[in-house]
């Protein structure tokens, strides 16, 4: 299934604070999961948002709503699950 992606304002702010090389890698991985929800994607339990994707030391926290990947946060792994 082909998804579209939407970044919430906090996710955009998070991305701006990440070094350029890491940011480019994260955006590329988000674009790849639009086509195929595989890779290092895991459904979370007892933690909103519903899914996480690993990209190096960063975690992309997102939900899937009506064929759309909604990215809520992009955080360093130390901060992602607090």
UniProtKB/TrEMBL annotation:
Domain of life: Bacteria
Alphabetical keyword list: Toxin-antitoxin system
Gene3D superfamilies attached to this UniProt entry: RelE-like
Residue stretches in coiled coil: none
Pfam families named among the record's database cross-references: ParE_toxin
InterPro entries: RelE/ParE_toxin, RelE/ParE_toxin_dom_sf, TA_system_RelE_toxin
Protein name (record): Type II toxin-antitoxin system RelE/ParE family toxin
